[in-house]
Structures are given as C-alpha cells and as structure tokens.
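TA notes, week 10

Several of you asked for a full example with nothing omitted. So below is the full record: structure tokens for the whole chain, then the designed sequence directly under it. When grading your own attempts, check the secondary structure regions first.
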C-alpha cells in the first residue's frame, strides 16, 4: 500500500493525512475483494524497517490500527482477520487489540484478510529456520537422527507466518516503485506481479478491477512451456 506520503505531500498535507486516506482505501479494497470472491487478501501495512520512521509517523500508524481495525469492518464483510509479523515489537495495547481481533473474527468465512504489521520477509524466514532448529533439538536426541529429506519446501512453508494461506496469485504494488521491499519473498516465487503508479489513497475499485483484468490476461506457466500449459488447459476443459 505505497504512496500515502507522496499523495499527502503533493496536496500540501501532512504525511499522516495520506495514511488516514489509505485506511479508507484498505477498507474499500477489503469489501471489493469479498464481492469479487477473493479468499485471501494480505495487506502490507507496516514493515520491520518502518520502525525507523519518525516517531510521530509511527505513532499515527499505531493509532490507526487501534481506531480503524475494528470488529464492525470484519463483521460487516464476514471477514476473518489475521496478523503476520513480529509480535514482540508492537506496543502492548496494539498487540492485544490485534490479537483480540484475530480471536473475535476467527469464525468469519467469506475471506481472510491478513495485515502484515512489523513484518519483513527476511525476519520471517530467519524465525522459521530458528523454529525448525528448535523442533529438531527438542524432538530428537541428536542431529544425526534427523534425515536431510525431513526438511522439505513444505516444512519451510509451514513454519512461515503465512502457513494458513496459499501462495499469492497476484501481488499488487501501488505508488510506482518497482521493488518488493522485503515482502513475502518465499511465497511469491510464482506470483504474478502488478505495479501501478497510482498512489494507494487513489487505488479505487476501477484500479483493482484493472489489476485483476491484467492478471487474467497472464499465462501462468510455473516453469513449463506455453504448449504444455495449453494442452493441460484443453484437457481440463474437456473433463468439465
Ligand atoms: C507506505 O506509503 C505505506 C505505509 C508505510 C503505511 C501503509 C498503511 C496504511 C495504508 C494504513 C493501513 C493501516 C490500517 C490500520 C489498515 P509511504 O508512506 O511510504 O508513501 P510514500 O512512499 O509516498 O512516502
């Protein structure tokens, strides 16, 4: 959700105004994704590196989490909320609020929206490696009893923050920057990427539809040839 700061600065407003407008976009995108039948939406709201921003900007963002991520939003849309990120770094009140929201919305089924807050992919992968090591140490007497093949790609995926969701089909970055910024690096191995110059506060419904229409034009080959994919698709259609 990039471009909040520039959106505000270009309008002569403080950066916080951009984040406030950005929250409204996030709410609209959640509702629109439910309408479109999206099952998992993940929003990058605050990176591990964002802790280095000026204290007042961090305080604004923490405040918005408390005041805007409320149960009405999730109840109205029948959406389950989850939080991915380093829980140890959040102020106690914010952490408790997010954990309460996760619990209160755990029965909602239309879509799961995950907020990446105090998240970075390298932190997540490092943590997963440590957790795997801890499990090996605590379930076996020596490393010698663990076979190399016990650790698979699935083992790693299951130890990431995103263990409960499939890999993303589509990654959208607003705000014109052409980089990934430490986001879901493992999970986006075969995701389709969509970059737009539109700032996040202006990422309206039609922009979301444009991104999805663009995605629908892509041929996802997962390393196979065009011919192989077409043959597979034809066979699948014949079976239907
Ligand atoms: C990046 O834009 C955006 C963020 C660091 C914050 C994103 C947060 C929101 C949209 C609010 C969501 C919060 C809730 C509670 C749902 P930037 O500030 O880096 O923009 P810039 O690159 O133009 O400076």
């Amino acid at each position: 959700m990039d471009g909040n700061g520039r959106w505000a600065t270009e309008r002569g407003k403080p950066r916080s105004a951009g984040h406030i407008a950005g929250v409204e976009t996030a709410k609209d995108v959640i509702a629109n994704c439910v309408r479109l039948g999206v099952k998992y939406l993940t929003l990058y709201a605050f990176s591990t590196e964002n802790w280095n921003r000026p204290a007042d900007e961090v305080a604004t963002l923490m405040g918005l989490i408390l005041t805007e991520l409320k149960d009405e939003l999730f109840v109205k849309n029948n959406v389950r909320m989850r939080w991915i990120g380093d829980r140890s770094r959040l102020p106690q009140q914010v952490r408790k609020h997010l954990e309460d929201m996760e619990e209160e919305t755990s029965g909602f089924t239309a879509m799961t929206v995950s907020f990446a807050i105090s998240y970075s992919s390298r932190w997540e992968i490092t943590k997963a490696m440590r957790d795997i090591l801890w499990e090996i140490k605590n379930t076996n007497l020596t490393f010698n009893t663990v076979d190399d093949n016990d650790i698979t790609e699935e083992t790693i995926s299951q130890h990431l923050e995103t263990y409960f969701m499939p890999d993303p089909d589509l990654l959208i970055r607003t705000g014109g920057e052409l980089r990934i910024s430490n986001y879901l690096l493992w999970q986006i191995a075969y995701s389709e990427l969509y970059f737009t110059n539109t700032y996040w506060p202006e990422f309206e419904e039609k922009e979301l539809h444009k991104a999805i229409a663009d995605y629908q034009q892509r041929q996802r080959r997962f390393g196979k040839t065009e011919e192989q994919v077409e043959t597979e698709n034809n066979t699948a259609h014949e079976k239907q």
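The beta strands are 40-47, 79-84, 111-119, 170-173, 192-195. Use that as a sanity check on your answer.
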